[in-house]
Amino acid sequence: MTPEVAVVRLPQGEGLPLPAYMSHGAAGADVVAAVERDLVLAPGERAVVPTGFALEVPPGYEVQIRPRSGLAAKHGVTCLNSPGTIDSDYRGPVGVVLVNLGRDPFVVRRGERIAQLIVAPVVQAAFREVEALAATPRGQGGFGSTGT
User: Fold this and answer.
1) Which phi and psi angles does 116 have, rounded to 5°?
2) What pLDDT does 148 receive?
3) Partner residues linked to 48 by β-bridges
4) Amino acid 141: pLDDT
5) DSSP letters spanning 100-121
6) Cis previous bond, 83, omega within 30
7) What are 122-132's pLDDT values in tens digits?
8) pLDDT at position 33
9) Per-residue pLDDT for 112 more than 80?
10) 95 three-class SS
11) CA within 20 to 30 Å of 78's CA: 45, 95, 130, 148, which one?
12) CA pair distance 124, 79, nearest whole angstrom
């Protein structure tokens, strides 16, 4: 069954496209910037970029905000807190936290594709306190402990 995500266009988003899949096999729906005027991100700078919409995510799902690979590869621009999560009980405006990790200033223009949304099922676990954890061959080996 295909989940349905309700979208409310906010005044800032007038005239802009709603999230859309750009190909038949796309996992993520592209999202555009709803800035009123050009936003310049200097190297190392971050900003919350408005999308011009709010979502109603169905119970049992989340929407993840992920970077666009083209922006990352070409300009060093990516999303912080990635993937970001939009919970099913959140109803506010959707914003994307962009950061410029590149060497040059990056201009975010109105209508430019800045991120992608992934709709994903959510499982809520039951957490229970125990005295010890079951042993595994890996044990407490941390970052990089399973190879290079």
Assistant:
1) -135, 150
2) 61
3) 97
4) 75
5) E-SSS-EEE-TT-EEEEEEEEE
6) yes
7) 999 999 999 99
8) 98
9) yes
10) strand
11) 148
12) 25
Cα–Cα distance, 74 to 85 (Å, whole number):
25
Three-state secondary structure call for residue 38: coil
Confidence bin at 120 (pLDDT 50/70/90):
very high
| Ramachandran class of 139: left when φ > 0, alpha when ψ lies in -120 to 50, beta otherwise | left
* Alpha carbon distance 57, 53 (integer Å): 13
Is residue 18 a contact partner of residue 111, using CB atoms and an 8 Å limit?
Answer: no
Token look-up 């914003």 returns: 95
Strand arrangement, sheet containing 20-21? 20-21, 29-32, 113-121, 61-66, 84-86
Rounded distance between C-alpha atoms, residue 67 and residue 118, angstroms: 11
Domain at 6-121: CATH code: 2.70.40.10
Paired tokens of 95: 């914003």
Contact present, 87 and 56 (Cβ < 8 Å)? no
Q: What is the amino acid identity at position 28?
A: G
